[in-house]
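Build the 3D complex.
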Amino acid sequence: MESAKIISRLPYSEPFLFVDEIISVDENSILGSFRFDENLDFYRGHFRNNPITPGVILIECMAQIGLAAFGIYLIKDETDRNVQFVFTSSEAEFLKPVFPGETVFVTSRKIYFRFGKLKCEVIMETEPGEKICKATLSGMITNQIVP
Amino acid sequence: MTQTEIIDTLKSIVKPYVQNQQAFETLDEKTDFVKDLQINSANLVDIALDTEDAFGIEIDNESMQRMLTVEAALSIIEEKRAQK
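Done.
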């Protein structure tokens, strides 16, 4: 499944889509990238006069590539397209800040995908390969979200 | 492995995911993982995977769907162990 097809099936859109490209994907791992545009609205407030990408947005970017996009690839065409994604847990360490205009690369490796739960080791890096964040993320692919 | 040993092992598997400690302390066969222990569906998957490892069994999708109470878990563990 090619990059554009996976991204078109993601349930996000601007201003909350944090995936530009899926560079490679197979049954065990996925690699994707995103460029944090200087004009993203949250930079006005995080921080005042000192724009740095919020950690929660980095985690969101890692989850969109490492769980949602990866999950779309893993379920292929076999499953109902009306599935929903639920982010269920994260444990993360931040090692380096991301400034406006930077491009990040996210690699996610499957720990397991069973009974609809995808658990992965996810790493975000800069273009030269310096680690920004490493995390263990989990999400559920489900037919309906219980309130 | 006796029934008591199976329950003790199951309790040790479930413990890290329990949100309602009071319900856990009074756990019996009727205890519901979701309603009583307030475990979410993502952690039910972890419980199933830990149960597979602890008892050397494989839990299929159909069993997973009905593994919502201690009683159901015990019957699935016994059934799968008997099949080995």
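The helical segments of chain B are 3-14, 21-25, 41-55, 61-66, 70-83.
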